[in-house]
Amino acid sequence: MNNFEGGDGRYLEMTNGGTAVFVDVLTFAVSELAHEPWDFRFAALLTLQDQNMMGRGMVGFGLADLDWGETPQERSAAKDFLLRVLDLALSRHRWEELTYEPPRVEGYLRTYRAMVEDFDPATADADADADVFPGPQEAAMASCVRHRVLCALPFWEACVFCTEGV
Q1: Which residues constitute the domain of residue 27?
Q2: Is the pLDDT score of 166 beyond 50?
Q3: Per-residue model confidence as pLDDT tens digits over 64-81
Q4: What does the pLDDT read at residue 159?
Q5: From the CB of residue 20, how many other CB atoms can be counted at a distance below 10 Å?
Q6: 3-class DSSP state for residue 67?
Q7: How far apart are CA 91 and CA 60, in angstroms?
Q8: Which among 163, 116, 128, 158 is positioned nearest to 140, based on CA atoms?
Q9: CA distances from residue 25 to 87, 93, 121, 139 in whole angstroms, order as listed
Q10: pTM over 0.85
Q11: Which of 9, 163, 7, 28 is nearest to 105 (CA)?
Q12: What residues have CB less than 8 Å from 70, skipping those under 6 apart?
């Protein structure tokens, strides 16, 4: 199982298929909204949740493990970005491009959104971010021309949609 941890011991546990759908719809949304350096770092983290590259049942991260920023303003902006990504995904942004119907992903998105909403970035573990959250030099700045989403450079040369057949 893949786990995405929130605060206060809450987590979203998904099957491999559920995680793949979760990552797919979030990839559409994060690719649309990313504009600031933190946004592209989060996009890189999202690309690392590609089970076709990382292995089935081997992905997930905790909100407390992210580098939310040093100031209250930075933490607020990062949290706002993540909530906007989740809201855009919940609006079914580009879902018509999926090759399948995502029956459970709306529930996953709502659960995760509630976890993010309740999470206080000031409680994040500042020492843990280097192991989980990609640094500025690893930000997902490249775009897959075919799928029009941010891709995993510098980690690998494909987006989550290109790796589906891998």
Answers
A1: 2-165
A2: no
A3: 989 999 999 999 999 999
A4: 81
A5: 22
A6: coil
A7: 23
A8: 158
A9: 11, 8, 24, 19
A10: yes
A11: 28
A12: none
Q: Which of 41-50, 115-124, 145-154 has the highest mean pLDDT?
A: 115-124
Burial of 26 (0-12, 13-18, 19+ CB in 10 A): buried
Q: Which amino acid is at 27?
A: T
Q: What is the pLDDT of residue 53?
A: 67
Average pLDDT, the chain: 88
As given in the structure block, the two tokens for residue 1 are 């199982």
- Report the pLDDT value the prediction gives residue 80, as an integer from 0 to 100: 98
Question: What residue type is assigned to position 83 of the chain?
Answer: L
DSSP state of 62: B
In terms of pLDDT, which residue wins out, 31 or 161? 31
Instruction: Give 42's Cβ-side CA count (13 Å radius).
Output: 31
**Exposure class string for 119-139: b at 16+ Cβ within 10 A, else e:** bebeebeeeebeebbbeeebb
Cβ contact 14:101 at 8 Å: no
Domain count, the chain: 1
Residue with the two structure tokens 């450079």: 153
Q: From the CB of residue 84, how many other CB atoms can be counted at a distance below 10 Å?
A: 15
Residue 144, helix vs strand vs coil:
strand
